[in-house]
Design brief:
The protein has one domain: Rossmann fold, CATH 3.40.50. It contains six helices and eleven strands. It has an eleven-stranded mixed sheet with strand order 1-2-3-5-4-6-7-8-11-10-9, with helices on both faces. The longest helix has 14 residues. It is globular, with a radius of gyration of 18 Å.
Length: 274
Amino acid sequence: MLLALGACDADGEERSEPGSPTTSDDPSAALVPTVPDAPPDDPFVGNGSFTIPLGDGRDGLVLLHAPPAIEERGRLPLVLAFHGFPGDAAGMAEMTRLDRLADSEGFLVAYPDSFVDPADVVALVDHLVDHWRVDPRRVHATGFSRGAAFVYTLAAEVPDRIASFAAVSGVKEDLLEARRPTALLTVQGGRDRLSRFFDVTNRSWAGDQRCARPTTERARLGGREARRTTAACRGGGEHVVWSVPSMSHVWPRGADALVWEFFAAHPLARRFTP
């Protein structure tokens, strides 16, 4: 199923503004080989890349970061991280700094490049569960900008395969009816060019999930004042919205830890109540 394998390493800095590139101009942030010619089905520590055939006939590139914990016995969580537009998988890795957190917390990170079909994501998850000792109950998805819109699609269409979701600086205009209750975190900026759409997206999701009236509290994210609203939803689902008034269209500092904390608290439920 896997057609080609390369290897890479990413170490990026902050965070893209609208219209700016998603990769750093710092040469030290360039991708460098760490596991040359490693077989795609043999887990290793570090960063690698492979391609997977997509449903539309293209070869889909995936960057994968495996933490030192991959050498231990037992299954690990997986975080899928989807980039925005313009952007690519390498830029997403540099921007989010999820690789560093993965090493300390013990989870895998996969950065699919230009995936647009949930069926292709499910095929990728199946491969990683079969060959990389991923725990199928601890698969999670996050995305930035257009990648966040795709996360909403995944939350609606494959909540039985992905445990929880985090959408950063993104909206979904045509929200689909979710197939089952799930957990969703969003991070939204008051200065984002998409800010006028956030309330509509939030209300639509909360209505579909039959969420209760939320509670609101003051908080801080990356040194910025924020407001966090939390609502319990049908069947054990949860809807958490972080609103940051001074934030523009970025992946903010602190979002990596915030997203992972949410994921760690929301494994896939074995059963749910409709």
